[in-house]
Amino acid sequence: MTEKSAHSHHISQQFNADLDDIKTRMLEMGGLVEKQVADATNAFMNLDTGLASDVKQGDNLVNSLEVAIDEECTIILARRHPAASDLRLVLSISKILSDLERMGDEASKVAESAIRLTELGGLPRSVLEIRHIGDHVSGMVRNALDAFARLDIDLALAVAEEDKAVDLEYGTAMRSLVTYMIEDPRTISSVLQVMWALRSLERVGDHARNIAEHVIYLVKGANVRHVDIDEMAATVQE
User: Which residues are within 8 A (CB) of 2 and not within 5 positions of it... i.e. 6 or more apart?
Assistant: First the structure.
């Protein structure tokens, strides 16, 4: 039996059903978080306080799902004592849940910055950096979840590589905003909200990379946290 098929076959049909349930629920939670990130970006770009409030409310559901699904993982570990690939699957899901919950927190922070920026009267310039990075990290979240669903380690590696691009975009945007504040100190309060929103979006990208690393661990059994992209690629190609 191949590594991938080991994740979909087990002597106990009920165990299979339990594993399928936590996988499905985690992916549904991931879809919700992806939407939260996209909505938070749109709320910020359009200064839509109604949508921003919806994102903040939605974070409560994300938190509840994380607790409920993680509890299911704990029950499976206690009752089934899974081994090998099954154990890696449950542990990976538990870790991915944590990353998704933190993404939800970051989306909520972006929404909060949108509300505060609206109260400050917005910005006298377009902030396309938010749109670009927001769209970028939303795509990373989607691809990381797809990589998990398909056990696609090549796609997982691509997500990790994308995180480097986001980091570069983030650095460029922050330097531009610092220059803008220096040129017009009256905008400092507003620009700080943009900077905090960008920081939250950059962190979403970090968590998407974490999910990609969990996928590689799940399929290859190798811990690729805290290694550079070259080492990660070598692990994927083994």
Answer: none
> CA separation (Å) from 127 to 9, 62, 65?
49, 28, 33
Q: Which among 229, 27, 20 has a CA at the least distance from the CA of 147?
A: 27
For helices 153-183 and 128-150, give the axis angle rounded to 10 degrees: 170
Q: Check: CB of residue 212 under 8 Å from CB of residue 160.
A: yes
57, with CB counted inside 10 A (0-12, 13-18, 19+), is: exposed
Rounded CA separation 152/133 (Å): 24
Is the dihedral angle over the CA atoms 155, 222, 32, 119 positive or is it negative? Answer: negative
Q: Give the tens place of pLDDT for each residue, 143-160.
A: 999 999 999 999 999 999
- Whether the CB-CB separation of 169 and 162 falls below 8 Å is answered with no
Contact call for residues 43 and 49 (beta carbons, < 8 A): yes
* pLDDT at site 1: 45
Q: Which amino acid is at 85?
A: S
Report pLDDT digits (tens) over 56-86: 999 999 999 999 999 999 999 998 888 888 9
> What residues contact residue 71 under an 8 Å CB cut-off, 6+ apart?
none
Domains and CATH numbers, the chain: 12-237 (1.20.58.220)
